[in-house]
Automatic annotation (TrEMBL):
It comes from Paratrimastix pyriformis. This is Uncharacterized protein. It comes from the Eukaryota. InterPro entries: OspF/SpvC_sf.
Length: 286
């Protein structure tokens, strides 16, 4: 446990035992200077801070086109809530400030392996335009800043500790999510930023995020949730916390690409970074 951080109680408002006892209670937990809340919505239990609310608003305002990195944990259905207890305790212990969720409702086959999710914030100046109401001052104020973008070492350590604690508790893993980048026995990484598709594209299943049948009938391009076969970074955003560094799992991001693409990696990275910067600069004029 990091020096100076108090221990999280075994039984706290976000443990599975507490959730089961009061399934619709909007609990709050103040810990190490942060206030965490819980919400049940659309088949998920979500734990978040005010910055998590601001992040969701930021993504929605800009059509989910900004980097949307997430850690997914794939757990056997019989062990899922035991894994939740371990991971939510780690999430709060490490003072993560955005959101973590677990799925408990109906789950489509293409989403299997993403039952537990931890959100990772990647900073962009537009995030500071999101204003959240502050009851204390009775004014709206920005809550997101560059300081909220945690370094790669933070997330690599988070995954390493999570994998260790899950294994020690004999939690059984399930197959990792299709298309994700494997980070261990339980954890994988994916950028779920929406991608642009042509008017002829059709979703693999109903209710696909971002898809509008009316727009398709008008032969318009759309921005939609990426398919699994598009891979773990379909939007081709730079990977801020893994890029160019050897990870604890024994490979570099370069090694995760198909062999035929490794030689062109640097050109690909530079090109996508330039395109992303140009697009972001355009948004700044809105």
């Amino acid at each position: 446990m990091p020096h100076g951080v108090p221990a999280v109680r075994t039984h706290h408002p976000f443990s599975w035992q507490s959730i089961q006892k009061h399934p619709k209670l909007m609990s709050r937990l103040d810990f190490a200077g942060h206030t965490y809340e819980i919400r049940h919505a659309n088949g998920f239990v979500k734990v978040y801070t005010v910055k998590g609310i601001a992040y969701w608003s930021f993504q929605t305002q800009y059509g989910n086109r900004f980097p949307d990195w997430k850690l997914h944990f794939s757990i056997d259905s019989q062990d899922r809530w035991a894994a939740w207890n371990i991971l939510i305790a780690l999430f709060i212990e490490r003072k993560c400030e955005f959101s973590m969720k677990i799925q408990y409702g109906e789950w489509p086959p293409h989403m299997r392996g993403r039952e537990i999710t931890v959100y990772i914030f990647s900073y962009h100046p537009l995030a500071e335009r999101v204003l959240i109401y502050d009851p204390a001052s009775r004014t709206e104020r920005p809550v997101l800043s560059a300081a909220d973008d945690r370094p790669g070492t933070f997330w690599r350590d988070f995954v390493s500790v999570a994998e260790s604690r899950l294994a020690r508790a004999k939690i059984r893993p399930a197959p990792l999510a299709q298309g994700d980048l494997p980070l261990g026995r339980y954890c994988s990484l994916r950028n779920e930023a929406f991608v642009r598709v042509g008017p002829e594209w059709r979703p693999p299943s109903s209710g696909w995020a971002g898809y509008d049948q009316g727009a398709a009938e008008l032969h318009k391009c759309q921005w939609v949730y990426p398919e699994n076969n598009a891979g773990w970074n379909a939007a081709r955003h730079p990977v801020p916390f893994l890029w160019g560094a050897r990870s604890r799992w024994g490979y570099t991001v370069e090694a995760c690409l198909p062999p035929q693409k490794r030689a062109a990696l640097r050109r690909w990275a530079a090109m996508t970074a330039r395109r992303a910067d140009a697009w972001f600069r355009g948004l700044m004029l809105i």
